[in-house]
Automatic annotation (TrEMBL):
<dbReference type="GO" id="GO:0004573">
    <property type="term" value="F:Glc3Man9GlcNAc2 oligosaccharide glucosidase activity"/>
</dbReference>
<dbReference type="InterPro" id="IPR008928">
    <property type="entry name" value="6-hairpin_glycosidase_sf"/>
</dbReference>
<dbReference type="InterPro" id="IPR054491">
    <property type="entry name" value="MGH1-like_GH"/>
</dbReference>
<dbReference type="Pfam" id="PF22422">
    <property type="entry name" value="MGH1-like_GH"/>
</dbReference>
<feature type="domain" description="Mannosylglycerate hydrolase MGH1-like glycoside hydrolase">
    <location>
        <begin position="28"/>
        <end position="418"/>
    </location>
</feature>
<comment type="similarity">
    <text>Belongs to the glycosyl hydrolase 63 family.</text>
</comment>
<dbReference type="GO" id="GO:0006487">
    <property type="term" value="P:protein N-linked glycosylation"/>
</dbReference>
<keyword id="KW-0378">Hydrolase</keyword>
<keyword id="KW-0326">Glycosidase</keyword>
<dbReference type="InterPro" id="IPR012341">
    <property type="entry name" value="6hp_glycosidase-like_sf"/>
</dbReference>
<protein>
    <recommendedName>
        <fullName>Mannosylglycerate hydrolase MGH1-like glycoside hydrolase domain-containing protein</fullName>
    </recommendedName>
</protein>
<dbReference type="InterPro" id="IPR004888">
    <property type="entry name" value="Glycoside_hydrolase_63"/>
</dbReference>
<dbReference type="GO" id="GO:0009311">
    <property type="term" value="P:oligosaccharide metabolic process"/>
</dbReference>
Length: 427
């Protein structure tokens, strides 16, 4: 990073609001689900294992009775974010949003447990948090794949974490615009050319209101939500997380009697794994050489080459031939936009190198892709992705995401997950 710039550890401390870490001050002033998980890795790598587990515990304070871990936990008040708790209208304490986010949490907990030096702490914290995370995964399969297709769906582009990915353009067109005035905060804090358009926000907010009007009723939402997408990134991250949960229970933590205590849940999770291993093949595109998301309402595959479509590598879902094809795709992708794996393929007509999920590169995604490549014997591609990620930080420092063509830092500055990835993965 820059000579006089704050260190990665300084950034985590700057963003620490007391057991939870905001992604960045101003733009995201609460605790976000997948940010918290990634950030916990940074706390561990900085030598503070207790603080890493605290991040997990504080996120779980937001868990709903049905098992969902929400995408935002509103621990405090802040005027700088829209839509805040009053717009979501969730009557809980702490207040939360009403959707989830890719559950990378379980995979992170496996790392905290296995790599933690303080064994007493690791065993105690795992035992205290694992039951909640098992419930979280059961919730995903039960409510988001009630027909047992092996492909969970999302109800909002925010749930995918990849808000304005070209993948969602088609399904979002089926969502009405909200019929109310609102004031965005994000575009006052960062350059609007790095954020989604009003067109998208009108529909994002419509969906938020829709969930509330339907009392978050699982059956009603599955039937009536105007946006229902089998999201390949969500499917993949959930699958990897479930595998990691099963491993934690069966191998690493056998001494904690978790298998006995959660036998039935584990059986159900293993069935879900088997369903996804089969069901995901319906999302493979031989022509594009990657997996795709699917609009579950319109019943069409969303034919866009994005990082979501290669995340199945992280989950161990592709067969050998598919993995090989994706490896070739990654190499070609990096050759065209060298600063990390661009969230949308540079050859796409919808590629925009600095607009949020339409082209920039994101370090936590790069990390998952590098692990996925490594797992499938794509060692060279894994090393290339890691080097490209180092190049982003060297070029610009700890930004939210990076222009994949120039390496310029974009979005929020002094960003927790980028600092965490540097501490844990790149150092
Ligand atoms: C935002 O507000 O931009 C977030 O991505 C929503 O989670």
């Amino acid at each position: 990073a820059m000579p006089d710039a704050p260190s990665a550890h300084d950034i985590l401390k700057l963003n620490d609001l007391g057991g939870y870490t905001v992604p960045t001050r101003g733009l995201y002033p609460f605790q976000w689900n997948w940010d918290a998980a990634i950030t916990a890795l940074g706390w561990m790598a900085a030598g503070d294992e207790a603080r890493a587990w605290r991040e997990v515990e504080r996120l779980l304070e937001g868990q709903w009775d049905n098992g969902m871990v929400p995408h935002i936990v509103f621990h405090g008040d802040a005027e700088t974010y829209f839509p805040g708790p009053e717009v979501w209208g969730v009557q809980r304490s702490p207040s939360t949003s009403a959707i989830s986010q890719p559950p990378v949490l379980a995979s992170v907990m496996k790392i905290l447990f296995e790599e933690g030096r303080d064994r007493t702490l690791a065993e105690q914290k795992l035992a205290a948090t694992l039951p909640a995370v098992i419930d979280y995964h059961l919730w995903f399969y039960r409510e988001r794949d009630p027909e047992g297709t092996g492909r969970v769906c999302s109800y909002h582009p925010w749930e995918s974490g990849m808000d304005n990915s070209p993948q969602w353009d088609g399904p979002l067109a089926g969502v009405p615009a909200v019929d109310a005035e609102y004031v965005r905060r994000d575009t006052g804090l960062v350059d609007p050319s790095e954020r989604p358009h009003k067109y998208e926000y009108d529909r994002y907010i419509y969906l938020v209101k829709f969930f509330q009007q339907n009392d978050h009723d699982a059956k009603v939402l599955y039937r009536d939500c105007p946006y229902r997408v089998e999201d390949i990134s969500l499917i993949s991250i959930l699958h990897r997380g479930t595998r990691d949960l099963v491993t934690l229970c069966e191998e690493d933590a056998a001494s904690l009697d978790l298998v006995n205590a959660h036998g039935e849940a584990l059986f159900s999770l293993k069935q879900s794994l088997a369903r996804t291993e089969e069901g995901v093949q319906a999302l493979w595109s031989e022509e594009l050489g990657c997996f795709l998301s699917r609009d579950a309402r319109a019943n069409v595959l969303l034919e866009h080459v994005t990082t979501a479509g290669i995340l199945p590598l992280f989950a161990g879902l592709p067969n050998d031939a598919q993995a090989k094809q994706m490896g070739g795709l990654v190499a070609d992708w990096l050759a065209q936009a060298p600063y990390g794996v661009a969230s949308t393929h540079p050859e796409s007509t919808r590629f925009e190198p600095k607009r949020y999920w339409r082209g920039p590169s994101w370090l936590h995604i790069n990390w998952m892709l590098a692990i996925g490549c490594e797992d499938h014997g794509l060692t060279q591609e894994a090393a290339q992705i890691k080097q490209a990620s180092k190049d982003c930080i060297a070029a610009a420092g700890y930004w939210e995401y990076f222009n994949s063509v120039t390496g310029e830092g974009c979005g929020g500055r002094d960003f927790s997950w980028t600092a965490a990835m540097d501490l844990y993965w790149l150092n």
